[in-house]
C-alpha cells in the first residue's frame, strides 16, 4: 500500500516513473561503418563487421498508471530492450532512470550488481513470455510468491501466506490450487501466477514481455482484462511488449513501433491506429482490419 500511495504522489508530480534514453544493445564490437548514427545496415546487421544492432538509440518515458506498448515483428528488438531495462542483458549504451528508486537521480544501468538486485526486487515486476523464466515450476504457487517477497526483505511467514492467497485470488487461481506447483497448471494459469508473483512487492513499474503469446483467445482475453484491472487498482506504470497490434490496441495508451532495432513511429495508440505514418506501421494496422 505504501508503494501505491507513492505512485499516487508521483501522478500528482507528473514525473515519469521510468525514463529510457538512447538505449542501444549490440552483439559484436561494431566498426566505423556501422557506428555512425545514419549507418546503412542490412536489417539490423552491419554488412561490414557482422555486428547485430539489436536495439538502436531507443528513448521513451512511462508515467505512473500509464501503459506504454512496444510493438514490432520478431527480431525487431523488443525483448532485448526489456532485458536491458530489467538487467537480464547489459546494454551497450544508454541511460535508464527509475523515479521510485532514487527519485530518478542516477542511471540505474550504472548501479552495482547489489543495487541492481534491489531495483529488480522493489521497483520492477517482470512477466516473461515463457513462464519457465519467471517461475520455479516445481515450487508451489504460494512459494513462488513468498520467494519474491523474501527477496525484497519480507521475513514474516504469516504475512507472505496472507499476501500469497490474496494475490492468487486476484488473478483467479482458486485457494485450493495455491499449494500446487505451476508445472501442473495450464499456460494461462501459469501466466496468472507469474503476474501474481510480479505484483507481490507492489512494484510501481511492471514489465510484460509477450505475456499472451501462445494462449488461446479466451485465455488471452482474461489475461488482458487482468492487466487492465491491475492498472486500474494499483496505478502502476507498465511497459507491454507484443508482436500483436491487437494486444497493444487493447492495452496501451501510447505505442512505440520498432523495426530492426529502431523506433520507427511513436504516439498515442489511437492516433497510430487511425493514421499510421510509417509504411511498416501501415502494414501492421491494415493487417488488423
Ligand atoms: N545473443 C545474441 N547474439 C546475437 N544476436 C542476438 C542475440 N540475442 C538476440 N539477437 C538478435 O537481436 C535481434 C533482436 O532480438 P529480440 O529477441 O530482441 O527481438 P524480438 O523483437 O523480441 O523478437 P522475438 O519476439 O522473436 O523474440 C534479433 O536480430 C536477434 O537475432
Automatic annotation (TrEMBL):
Gene3D superfamilies assigned to the protein according to its UniProt record, in alphabetical order: P-loop containing nucleotide triphosphate hydrolases (3.40.50.300)
Domain ABC transporter: from-to ranges: 40-285
Domain of life from the UniProt record: Bacteria
Keyword terms of this UniProt record: ATP-binding, Lyase, Nucleotide-binding
GO molecular function, one term: lyase activity
SUPFAM superfamilies: P-loop containing nucleoside triphosphate hydrolases
CDD domains the record matches: ABC_NikE_OppD_transporters
Pfam families: ABC_tran
BP-aspect Gene Ontology terms: organic phosphonate catabolic process
Keyword check for Iron: no
Name of the protein this chain belongs to: Phosphonate C-P lyase system protein PhnK
Lineage, broadest ranks: Bacteria, Bacillati, Actinomycetota, Coriobacteriia, Eggerthellales
GN (gene name): phnK
Amino acid at each position: 500500500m505504501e508503494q501505491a500511495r507513492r505512485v499516487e504522489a508521483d501522478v500528482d508530480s507528473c514525473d515519469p516513473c521510468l525514463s529510457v534514453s538512447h538505449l542501444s544493445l549490440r552483439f559484436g564490437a561494431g566498426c566505423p561503418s556501422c557506428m555512425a548514427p545514419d549507418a546503412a545496415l542490412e536489417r539490423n546487421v552491419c554488412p561490414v563487421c557482422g555486428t547485430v544492432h539489436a536495439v538502436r538509440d531507443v528513448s521513451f518515458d512511462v508515467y505512473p498508471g500509464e501503459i506504454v506498448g512496444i510493438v514490432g515483428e520478431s527480431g525487431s528488438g523488443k525483448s532485448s530492450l526489456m532485458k536491458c531495462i530489467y538487467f537480464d542483458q547489459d546494454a551497450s549504451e544508454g541511460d535508464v532512470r527509475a523515479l521510485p528508486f532514487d527519485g530518478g537521480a542516477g542511471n540505474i544501468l550504472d548501479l552495482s550488481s547489489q543495487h541492481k538486485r534491489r531495483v529488480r526486487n522493489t521497483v520492477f515486476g517482470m512477466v516473461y513470455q515463457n513462464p519457465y523464466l519467471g517461475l520455479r515450476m516445481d515450487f508451489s504457487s504460494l512459494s513462488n510468491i513468498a520467494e519474491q517477497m523474501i527477496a525484497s526483505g519480507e521475513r514474516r511467514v504469516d504475512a507472505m501466506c496472507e499476501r500469497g492467497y490474496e494475490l492468487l485470488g486476484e488473478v483467479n487461481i482458486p485457494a485450493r490450487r495455491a499449494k500446487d506447483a505451476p508445472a501442473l497448471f495450464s499456460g494461462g494459469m501459469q501466466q496468472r501466477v507469474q503476474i501474481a508473483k510480479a505484483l507481490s512487492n507492489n512494484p510501481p513499474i511492471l514489465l510484460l514481455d509477450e505475456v499472451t503469446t501462445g494462449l488461446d483467445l479466451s485465455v488471452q482475453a482474461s489475461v488482458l482484462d487482468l492487466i487492465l484491472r491491475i492498472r486500474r487498482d494499483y496505478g502502476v506504470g507498465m511497459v507491454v511488449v507484443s508482436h500483436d497490434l491487437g494486444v497493444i490496441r487493447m492495452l496501451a495508451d501510447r505505442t512505440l513501433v520498432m523495426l530492426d532495432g529502431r523506433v520507427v513511429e511513436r504516439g498515442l495508440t489511437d492516433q497510430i491506429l487511425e493514421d499510421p505514418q510509417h509504411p511498416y506501421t501501415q502494414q501492421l494496422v491494415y493487417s488488423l482490419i
